[in-house]
Amino acid sequence: MKFFFTIFIIIFLVLFCLFNGLAFGDLVEYKASSFYNALSKEISTPPELTLTPLNEEETEKNDLENPKTKKEEILAYLSEEEIKNKENLQLLILPKFKIKAPIKKVDQFNESLIYQKLKEGVVLFPGTAEPGKGYSIIIGHSSQYPWQEGNYKSVFSLLNELSQEDEIYVLWQGKILIYKVEEKKIFLPFHKGGQTTEEIFPIENKPILILQSCWPAGVDQKRVAIKTLLASEIDL
Questions:
Q1: Which among 25, 65, 217, 230 has the fewest CB atoms less than 10 Å away?
Q2: DSSP 115
Q3: Highest mean pLDDT among 8-17, 147-156, 189-198
Q4: Would you call 89 helix, strand, or coil by DSSP?
Q5: Interatomic CA distance for residues 179 and 55, integer angstroms
Q6: Average pLDDT score, the chain
């Protein structure tokens, strides 16, 4: 009996990993890359340098030039076609993972329509504010079966790897909105007897963006939510 149970567990784990290969592949690649970067940094630690502090005029000049530099950095994520149409872009960029996805709008809560739009990108949850204008929630898949349609089946598979002060870019209505991660929570959703996102992260009189997905990848049991706060904006 124990033998058959062991075989069952092995088959289950193999199938689970196979069906959620995209999400786990993203996670393994990210972890391996992080380990390699940390190792390289440790091996080739540069010597200590004595830095001459900038005077006030130079600091001011650098501060003025910084928005342009940041804009160029963000535009580097865009294709030629996206740059041509940049004034109309509705795009989410997670620079830490080099991930970008279109933001799709749904005017009213309709589960089947939301599910359809998730095949095309991430979704601005209906009833929440547009980015930069209040309390916004954007949802996306962390994992989907390989045979299901869409190019964004694991777009939020690495959401749990975001850390405080990580930047999130939103291109919206001719502006680049730069958010910074403040907090991360994992919780049981309301329809499973838990809490709503608004209870986890109460609405404030600030431009807040919540990124949310199922957690862990491949399981629809809990949710991971990342609270970010608008830090700055740049005209496109």
A1: 65
A2: H
A3: 189-198
A4: coil
A5: 29
A6: 80
164: phi > 0 → left, psi -120 to 50 → alpha, else beta; which?
A: beta
Banded model confidence at residue 113, pLDDT cuts 50, 70, 90: very high
The answer to whether residue 57 sits within a structural domain is no
Question: Residue 125 and residue 76: Cα distance in Å, rounded?
Answer: 27
- 62 found inside a domain: no
Report CA 139 to chain centroid distance, whole Å: 9
Q: Domain total for the chain?
A: 1
Global confidence as pTM:
0.75
CA proximity to 105, closest of 22, 160, 170, 46? 170
- DSSP codes, 168-227: EEEEETTEEEEEEEEEEEEE-BGGGTSB-HHHHS---SS-EEEEEEEESTT--SEEEEEE
Q: Residue 169, class by beta-carbon neighbours within 10 Å (0-12 exposed, 13-18 middle, 19+ buried)?
A: buried
Q: In whole angstroms, how far apart are CA 195 and each of 72, 138, 224? A: 40, 17, 12
Tokens of 135: 């309390």
- 182 close to 227: Cβ distance less than 8 angstroms: yes
165: how many CB neighbours lie within 10 A of its CB?
Answer: 9
Distance CA 70, CA 94 (A): 14
Is 47 domain-assigned? no
Q: Which domain holds residue 96?
A: 2-27+82-235
Q: How far apart are CA 230 and CA 132, in angstroms?
A: 7
The CATH number given to whatever domain includes residue 170 is: 2.40.260.10
CB contact at 8 A, 90 and 103: yes
